[in-house]
Every structure is written in structure tokens, then in C-alpha cells.
Write a structure and sequence with these properties.
Organism: Streptomyces kurssanovii
Helix content: 40-55%
Order of helices and strands: EHEHEHEHHEHEEHEHEHHHHHH
Strand content: 5-15%
Number of strands: 9
InterPro entries: 6-PGluconate_DH-like_C_sf, 6PGD_dom2, 6PGDH_NADP-bd, HIBADH-like_NADP-bd, HIBADH-related, NAD(P)-bd_dom_sf, Tartro_sem_red
Enzyme class: oxidoreductase
GO molecular function: 2-hydroxy-3-oxopropionate reductase activity
Shape: globular
Protein name: 2-hydroxy-3-oxopropionate reductase
Largest sheet: 6 strands, parallel
């Protein structure tokens, strides 16, 4: 019998599926639940157990991990008679890896504590590729002892794993991460349009730029998206729109000015309004092209 903790996983989307599979590869027992049958079939094919409800998923788990799109979904799966808090055992550790508002994480931790359930907020950065390769950056909020318990599990999912402070801190750092990523993608998109309109070999230009101070993980990960106009979603505009709302609201609450971030948030919103919300966030290039008269 394995001495590793039993894991319940809720949310098997673009990120959740490969992450749960990496836990299976590391030897953990994973029972999963999501709304899409094909994702449950994928988990079962990888060696996990598909469950038919949240209650069934979490009832015997030592650790419950959630990876869903936003605060309303976290609240829907956590609360109520069919939710995690009413059906997980006392002493279980709930690790929410969704990207949600810091206040949602704080409220969840407080409510869970009253039921004897420990909570960490542990959002991630790295996109689909980082999830597949188990090289995610994981920013955590919560108690040191709970972080120490979770660390071996998180090490099967990511490479950079840091406790950032009390409950909600992981979400605050993730919001800052999404601000940096969005601004970086926007800058790269503007550079791509500028280079192409100037008649420069784009592939060569991006190679040399990425070797200098302008280089970044964003440019490394998204270079082929720009070159090939391949906007298959690794991280959708819809989700980045949600995250930019989180960071601008949180910044307003603490009195931090985000002048460039506010502009990029509006550009993300405009792209979504034009029907591109399901595309990868590298599709910010499309917005720049439209503004530059390069795309219908």
C-alpha cells in the first residue's frame, strides 16, 4: 500500500488534466471530478479514478486540489451541501490552485477552518506547456505547516514553489504575475507589428531580441504563436480578462496606480468583445494588427 496521501482533484481543464496526470506519474492516487466526460475518461486512461460527484471525489481524500476558472466556480464547488467543505473529512488539506480574488481565498480559508479543513491558495504560472512539463511557478498563501505538508505534492507539479505569506498572498502575487504577463505580451505584439511593417525578417529579429535584455519567458513561449499566427488556447483571453479585472480591482483597494496595466486591461477587454475570448492571450497581436490597419 502506498503511504502517499490520497488526492482528490476537481477541475480537469487545459491545466488541470496534465497536472493531475503528473501526480499520477509521481505515484499518487488521484480521484477526479469535472463536468466533461471526455476529461474524466482521460484521467481514467492515465491511471486515475473518475468520480461522479464532488462528494464522491473528496470523501476519502487526504488532500483536495481544485483548479477551476474563477471565484464563482470556487465558491460553487466549495460551499453548500454537495460541496467540498461539507463532504471532505476533518483534517483534510484543500489546495486551491485556481486564479481568483485574494478575498475569496481569505474567506474560504476562514470558513474551512471552522470545519477543521486546512486551506492553501496556490495559483500557478506557466501555462499549458508548464503544466505538461511540470515546471510551473507556484505562489502559495497560508500557514507554514500546511505549506510544508503540501510541498512534496507541489514539487510534482512545478519547479518554483514559494510561500508568499498568509491566506490570499498567493492570489495577490498571481495577480501581479498576470499584470506582468499581459503587459509583456502586449509589448511583444507591438514589436512584431512594427518589425513586420518595417520589412525585417521577423524570426531572426525575435531570436536576437530574446537573447538580450528584451528577452523573456513570454517571448520564448509565445514566439511561435506570433510567427505562425497560431492562437490555439494555452491560456485564453477570457481568463486573462478575468485576471486583469482581479489585479486592477485589488490595486484600487490598496491605492496602487497601474497606468500601463489599465490600458492593457482595456485592450484585453476589447479583444474579448470582438469575439476572440476563446483564443490564446498571444492573440493580443490581432488587436495591434487591427489598430495598425493590418487585419480586417
Amino acid at each position: 500500500m502506498s503511504t502517499l496521501p490520497k488526492i482528490a482533484w476537481i477541475g480537469l481543464g487545459i491545466m488541470g488534466s496534465p497536472m493531475s496526470e503528473n501526480l499520477l506519474k509521481a505515484g499518487y492516487s488521484v480521484t477526479g471530478y469535472t463536468l466533461e466526460q471526455d476529461k474524466l475518461d482521460r484521467l481514467a486512461a492515465a491511471g486515475g479514478t473518475a468520480a461522479g460527484s464532488i462528494a464522491e471525489t473528496v470523501k476519502d481524500a487526504d488532500v483536495v486540489i481544485t483548479m477551476v476558472p474563477a471565484s464563482p466556480q470556487v465558491e460553487a464547488i466549495a460551499y453548500g451541501p454537495d460541496g467540498i467543505l461539507e463532504n471532505a473529512r476533518q483534517g483534510a488539506l484543500l489546495i486551491d490552485m485556481s486564479s481568483i480574488t485574494p478575498q475569496t481565498s481569505v474567506d474560504l480559508a476562514k470558513t474551512a477552518a471552522a470545519k477543521g479543513i486546512r486551506v492553501l491558495d496556490a495559483p500557478v504560472s506557466g501555462g499549458e506547456a508548464g503544466a505538461i512539463e511540470a515546471v510551473l511557478s507556484i505562489m502559495v498563501g497560508g500557514e507554514q505547516a500546511d505549506f510544508d505538508t503540501a510541498r512534496p505534492i507541489l514539487e510534482a507539479l512545478g519547479r518554483t514553489i514559494v510561500l508568499c505569506g498568509p491566506h490570499g498572498s498567493g492570489q495577490t502575487v498571481k495577480a501581479a504575475n498576470q499584470l506582468i504577463v499581459a503587459v509583456n505580451i502586449q509589448a511583444c505584439a507591438e514589436a512584431v507589428v512594427f518589425l513586420e511593417k518595417s520589412g525585417v525578417n521577423l524570426s531572426a529579429a525575435l531570436d536576437v531580441l530574446n537573447g538580450g535584455l528584451a528577452g523573456s519567458t513570454v517571448l520564448t513561449r509565445k514566439k511561435d504563436n506570433f510567427l505562425n499566427r497560431d492562437f490555439k488556447p494555452g491560456f485564453r483571453i477570457d481568463l486573462h480578462h478575468k485576471d486583469m479585472g482581479i489585479v486592477t480591482d485589488a490595486a484600487r483597494n490598496v491605492g496602487a496606480a497601474l497606468p500601463v496595466g489599465a490600458v492593457v486591461a482595456q485592450l484585453v477587454a476589447s479583444l474579448r468583445a470582438q469575439g476572440d475570448g476563446g483564443l490564446d492571450h498571444s492573440a493580443l497581436l490581432r488587436a495591434v494588427e487591427r489598430l495598425s490597419g493590418s487585419q480586417a
